[in-house]
Amino acid sequence: MASFVEDRLRELGLALPPPPAPVATYIPASRAGNLLFVSGVIPVRQGQPLFRGKLGQDLTVEQGYEAARIALLNALAIIKEELGSLNSVRQIVRMTGYVASHTGFHDQPAVINGASDLLVAVFGVSGRHARLAIGVAELPLAVPIELELIVQIEENLHG
Amino acid sequence: MASFVEDRLRELGLALPPPPAPVATYIPASRAGNLLFVSGVIPVRQGQPLFRGKLGQDLTVEQGYEAARIALLNALAIIKEELGSLNSVRQIVRMTGYVASHTGFHDQPAVINGASDLLVAVFGVSGRHARLAIGVAELPLAVPIELELIVQIEENLHG
Amino acid sequence: MASFVEDRLRELGLALPPPPAPVATYIPASRAGNLLFVSGVIPVRQGQPLFRGKLGQDLTVEQGYEAARIALLNALAIIKEELGSLNSVRQIVRMTGYVASHTGFHDQPAVINGASDLLVAVFGVSGRHARLAIGVAELPLAVPIELELIVQIEENLHG
Questions:
Q1: For A149, which residue in chain B has the nearest alpha carbon?
Q2: B146 in a structural domain
Q3: Is B158 helix (H, G, I), strand (E, B) or coil?
Q4: So what's the ipTM on this one?
Q5: By residue range, what is the domain housing residue C147?
Q6: Model pLDDT for residues B119-145, shown as the tens digit of each residue
Q7: Is residue B19 part of a domain?
């Protein structure tokens, strides 16, 4: 069966990274019924941050937007590893975007759009999700973004 | 059928606002089985913040409490729009209250009570929820409060 | 039936505290289907914080690790009270660790490991969970840690 979702990723010029290894004693994702809870993803590749610093101080909104895209690709890599295929995603249910924010920075939504826009570009209507955008003090490895995702999976994969 | 929950809102002198439009590429709420995940709600009306600033610096606990009530009314407006009626709520499952907090402010629970108290006033026992209160650095539009809600809906509405 | 999970707690030299009373108008946990959403737990005993302050300023990573363990014991006490026995836990689905973080502190994962390591020690493979670690500005009662947990319960307890 063709991998439609990954075709769209390719059309966008994007490739899935290897799924990031947890940096501590937890697992990349956990399934309960037909919900998949994905561990926090950040803009790293092979354990190295691609962006460091805070919005409103060290990084522009455009850089934050790109960091959110990279973090989301890590989430997609985890989801694919868990489900076998991104086509098994029925719906992206919810995403929370935590944005490391310097005092006075209030444009968290524009930053998290980097991930939201990509979800809709890749999954279409199934990528439309409920969302929160929160500005936080500090994130692991000094990255500017961490994403939380809850995904509904196709019933036939119900574990 | 009478709208009991909205009757209680009226008795409290409250009216539902129009549901807030998302300020970015996401949707107001997402359903997975009989769980409804509501997007982050903040104390805005027609896109304009009714409160701005941080607790412990710009706003009193009483103002924060009122801001939490207003944010919650936005959540109720979204839930009504999604379900057709607030009577279709079986249980408010969980709420997280993110409170923009100046250094040294630790009274997040008293602020979030503005939303929790209103949930119980409006829904009765169905409004009793698990909760977290978190003090964060900055929130979108400089608002002092953002709420996360997960709602269980009546089985006959199971999508 | 023997309480295997509590046996493991005893072997670790740990005892469950009385479940913490909510400090405001909410409930300790809420069930939706076979998911149990636990309210935010912090390192308190009988309402008194055992640790206060921020990581990167007032507390070492080792102290934060211990605070996370204590917060988790409070979560376990709540879960036992809700389910009757910790053996009714099918899976710890997700944990979010909010760490009160001074500017420049980025070792949230090492702190939250205090809770993650204990979950795995106590529940074995059922304790392996998805996780987020977030550095926040301030927490209630000036504690350094707050934990969010979602737990899947055994089907025969499905409410």
A1: B37
A2: yes
A3: coil
A4: 0.93
A5: 4-18+34-154
A6: 999 999 999 999 999 999 999 999 999
A7: no
The string of pLDDT tens digits covering residues C95-106 is 999 999 999 999
Strands B130-136 and B89-100: parallel
Q: Give the residue numbers in A contacting B (CB under 8 Å), as ranges.
A: 33-35, 56, 91-96, 101-110, 112-113, 116-117, 120, 128-137, 150, 152
pLDDT of the residue at C1: 38
Q: Give a yes or no: residue A16 inside a domain.
A: no
Number of domains in chain B: 1
DSSP H/E element including A119 = helix A108-123
Using one digit for the tens of pLDDT, what is the confidence trace for B69-122? 999 999 999 999 999 999 999 999 999 999 999 999 999 999 999 999 999 999
Chain A hits for C137, CB-CB cut-off 8 Å, are: 136-137
- The alpha carbon of residue B47 is apart from the nearest alpha carbon of chain C, in Å, by 26
Residue A106: exposed, middle, or buried by beta-carbon count in 10 A (0-12, 13-18, 19+)?
Answer: buried
Inter-chain residue contact C132 with A138, CB threshold 8 Å? no
Is residue C94 a part of any domain in this protein?
yes
Q: Which amino acid is at C43?
A: P
CATH number at residue C120: 3.30.1330.40
CB hemisphere CA count around C89 (13 angstroms): 34
pLDDT for position B2: 42
Question: Which residue of A132, A138, A153, A158 to mutate against B (max B Cβ within 10 Å)?
Answer: A132
Q: Under an 8 A CB cutoff, do C33 and A33 touch? A: yes
pLDDT tens digits along B28-64? 999 999 999 999 999 999 889 999 999 999 999 999 9
